[in-house]
Amino acid sequence: MTIKEAQNAVDQWINSYGVRYFDVKTNMIVLTEEIGEMARVISRQYGEQSVKPGEELNLGDEMADVLWVLLCIANQTGIDLTTAFKNNIEKKTNRDNKRHLENKKLK
Fold first, then answer.
1. What is the CATH number of the domain that holds 35?
2. Do 12 and 4 contact (CB within 8 A), yes or no?
């Protein structure tokens, strides 16, 4: 699935089952909440926190929740994430094409 296809799939789902998009501010808060849930899984699975009794960890599902809300926000604000991501890679390449290679901390 391409990014554009994912944006379209979310839009179709929202229009079929979700009634309408939450407003952008609400979705920003939901995105923050979902990132927190992803962080909780990482802290338990890869960090030093222990898993609570009965707690199930599913990092992939939490990442998908983050992506879902991000796609919602992109759709609501008219952002083509394919173009935005391509432009972002180009920006990083132009800005950082030697930065990390020359970083002694990474060697």
1. 1.10.287.1080
2. no
The per-residue pLDDT for range 21-80, each reduced to its tens digit, is: 999 999 999 999 999 999 999 999 999 999 999 999 999 999 999 999 999 999 999 999
Which pTM value belongs to this model? 0.91
Which helix (H) or strand (E) is 88 found in, with range? helix 81-96
DSSP per-residue string spanning 20-59:
SPPPHHHHHHHHHHHHHHHHHHHHHHTSSPPPPTT----H
Domain that holds residue 41: 3-80
**Residue 4 — pLDDT band, cuts 50, 70, 90?**
very high
- Report the amino acid identity of residue 9: A
Q: Is residue 75 part of a domain?
A: yes
Dig out the tokens for 76 from the structure.
């609501």
Q: Rg of the chain over CA atoms, in angstroms?
A: 18
Residue 107 has pLDDT above 90, yes or no: no
